[in-house]
Amino acid sequence: DGDRLEEEEAVERVLLWEKSWQPCPRARQRLQECLGFVRRQLFRVGEDWYFLFALGVLMAMISFMTDLIVFRLYEAHRWLYREIGDYAVLKYLSWTMYPVALAAFSTGFSQSITPHSGGSGIPELKTILMGVMLEDYLAIKNFGAKVVGLICTLACGSTVFLGKVGPYVHISAMLAAYLGKMRTSVTKEYEDKFKQNEMLVAAQAVGVATVFGAPISGVLFSIEVMASHFAVRDYWRGFFAATCGAFMFRLLAVFNSEQETIIALFKTNLKLDFPFDLWETFFFLALGVICGVVACAYLFCQRWLLGYVKENKFTAKLLRTDKPVYTVLVVLLLASITFPPSLGQFMASQLTMKEYLVSLFDNRTWGELALSVPAGDPGSSHRLWQEWCHPSVSFFGTLAFFLVMKFWMLILATTLPLPAGYFMPIFVYGAALGRLAGETVAALFPQGITAGYPVIPGGYALAGAAAFSGAVTHSVSTALLACEATGQLAWALPIAAAVLAANGVAQKWQPSFYDGTIIVKRLPYLPRIRSRHMASYRVLVEEFMNRRVLSLAKTDAFGEVLAALTAASTTADFPVVESAELPTLVGTVSRTELVAFLQSHGSAGEKPAGTVGGDCTIEPVMLQLSPWTSLHQTHHLFELLKLQQLFVTRGGELVGAVTRAEVRMAPGQGDA
After folding, report:
1. What is the CB neighbour count within 10 angstroms for residue 331?
2. Choosing a second label site near 218 at 20 to 30 A (CA), which of 83, 229, 340, 457?
3. pLDDT reading at 305 higher than 60
């Protein structure tokens, strides 16, 4: 036995020596010291720079590769439709079944991985930035589902007519969250919520910038659309990351021989020496008002249909159990309508989203082109503007028909449960609206308002795109976005005038597209106070606060704590007062603390000892409301500090509480 014991000890010593021995200990130590020195030197300037640079470059590569794959898939659809021949049935099947299959796969694949991959993602991200954490929304498993689903959605082309801005913002946010975790593992430093929010704000700008190649307007648009309050210290983060992303995105196009140098995303040739007549400013303002009115109708109908689809028994059941089936039915309807030999010939349905914009931003007047080069002339070279011309209908008719049909088709497409963006479609729709207005003005003034300076309909299309998209999203930065994406800064003033006029109408009567989606989805988001009447400033906390607040006294014992936890099963923090007779607010105690109190005192005997004041950690209340605090002040505090609840005291005594629900339902909150 002794020999066997010695033998085992010897084996253990050998195994321990083999496990602990590592070659070249001095070299390894020097290498570790060098790596540590390099890391300290690199992070001396701040690790944010490397993080934001990596975020911008990665998003640019994702955006470029996505566009490349979508282009190949769309060209395959065009080739299939063209090579089938003149068999009407086969042409119809090739036109409809291709997008139906892609959309069904997009829905089934993304929804099978996570339900958070559907839609644009901006409403949920706005909710997160307001301080409400949505579980698994930024998880990396959503990343693949969103990217693959979005590629299939975009490859459907003009049949579904959906974009990619919102999904790119969501993808960028997921990538930022994942990179934040990687940075934490490298630097060994804890990343708090404020740091996470700073990076999410930068991620929003990168998502927009890598779609349009527009870093400045990307930052401003992300601030307008997604942030209720913005810290100026985050400004440089957004601009740096967006610039890296936009530069890399356009640089990849040069490397791929798509362009000779870095230029604007949409090629335009609008006049710069005399872009517009001064009197045309009134037409631009009128165009802005029209865009605002149409945007109000669009927002109302879209919000109504989104709610109806969720409440209707048939569609609600499909969306709960068979989402791909709902997608197949809707896409089949949309594809059948856009079938080129049918109604699609009056809607230029064979153009891609980018080709739509290039044709609508054409600096030439279509009326003159139609007279000089007939659309049906077989000897003329094919041009994009000819897609809008028809032998039996003028381009005025095709533009008007496009606007009428796409109005409800786009609204219907927003109900699809697949990854998709909704900004590019409304941008194209606004461009068509502006083009129709511009061609009308050109027809009324063939020689121009001032003789010798003809009207340029492409400028009106640019203003219409910015005005309608700005009215739908309640943003003004779309004016700069339109100029930056086309390189036409000379048109900035009339475009800005149209955008302001459109926003003035839309913001008066309807919530924005993303706020409307939040309302329908019932996300815990606090919308801004739309009312600016003086009466809304006189609404006080005592008019809408919750007066029935469940509180605990410092002297409460086991029974009272158990009753409170049972009565309020979802409450996270309970207010603590001095006593039932003297309800002076002394602080709050968390639910976790109370559960631990019950567990530690529940086995003490028949009559458990201990009180809340003596055995629980009571956190002080740093901020309280007065019954005479105004609604606007309360709303501002909730937005700025990302609060979930505030207690109301009068002379130190607890008299009520206000949560986000009370603020949303307050008198005057929704009045226009």
Report:
1. 28
2. 457
3. yes
